[in-house]
Design brief:
Largest sheet: 5 strands, mixed
Number of strands: 7
CATH architecture of the largest domain: Orthogonal Bundle
Strand content: 5-15%
Distance between the termini: 56 Å
Structural class: alpha+beta
Mean pLDDT: 94
Length: 260
């Protein structure tokens, strides 16, 4: 173990390797690496690639848990590897096992093909669709309306929740928790005029009502967001879609006015 004075130690880094162009199935490769108390999993992967095997393939970018590029499965749990220290995830034998995200095709090693992830995201039209009458100065949302968005804008699209979802494992046509969270963000935003279309889209056979409410998406989210709550909200609003859309139109008539 790392001592109190911050000395280094040896750790075994197990990486699942797989190149579908030349190999039939994945296999584990083990490396021994010297780590310090602040060595992140991404630091370890970078060291392995630089010092031991340059063919190890993985994604990374910002190193600040903002871009979502480095989401992987570590010891069976999806997480961002740029902000998790190796010593936090070592087992009693001083090992850590790193795999690519589940339920997505592997391009090579720890890099997965996120095509289906982005296709489902685009289904809900996740951008803001403003009303026809845009205020000359600004929209005026109430604190309650802002709070209702449940910080969904903090989602970094890392894919951790999508890869942890059991429904995705069975049905790649399922919209997915990431896209439904973004759909809820727009549906609950009083400035948005795409409410009717979004609620119709998520009401289909592969939408919000397909969710099994297992909560894996909550456990997997590195930002502490709650896609399950967003999905339940969408279910409720979809059942009263016409009344909700009518109320939205009325609210947009007053969006330029100050709120109490």
């Amino acid at each position: 173990m790392t001592t109190k004075n911050g000395s280094t130690r040896k750790a075994t880094i197990r990486v699942q390797r797989f190149n579908p162009d030349v190999e039939k199935k994945p296999y584990w490769a083990e490396f021994t690496l010297t780590i310090g108390p602040d060595t992140t999993i991404l630091d370890a992967l970078e060291a392995l690639k630089t010092e031991q095997d340059g063919s190890i393939t993985f994604r990374r970018s910002c190193r600040h848990a903002i871009c979502g590029s480095c989401a992987m499965n570590v010891n069976g749990t999806n997480m961002l590897v740029c902000n998790r220290r190796v010593e936090e995830v070592l087992d009693r034998q001083g090992r850590v096992s790193i795999k690519p995200l589940s339920y997505l095709p592997v391009i090579k090693d720890l890099v997965v093909d996120r095509t289906s992830f982005w296709e489902q995201y685009l289904r809900v039209k996740p951008w803001l669709i403003p009303p026809d009458d845009v205020p000359e100065k600004e929209f005026r949302m109430s604190p309650e309306e802002v709070a209702a968005l449940q910080n969904a804008e903090k989602c970094i699209m890392c894919g951790a929740c999508y890869s942890a979802c059991q429904v995705v494992a069975m049905n790649k046509k399922y919209i997915g928790p990431h896209a439904l969270l973004k759909a809820a963000l727009r549906v609950l935003d009083p400035r948005d005029s795409g409410t009717n279309g979004r609620l119709l889209e998520i009401s289909g056979a592969d939408g919000a009502f397909r969710c099994h409410t297992i909560f894996n998406c909550i456990d997997a989210c590195p930002k502490g967001l709650d896609p399950t709550q967003a999905i339940e909200t969408l279910r409720q609003l979809a059942q009263k879609r016409e009344a909700f859309v009518a109320a939205r139109r009325e609210r947009q008539k007053t969006l330029a006015q100050p709120t109490d």
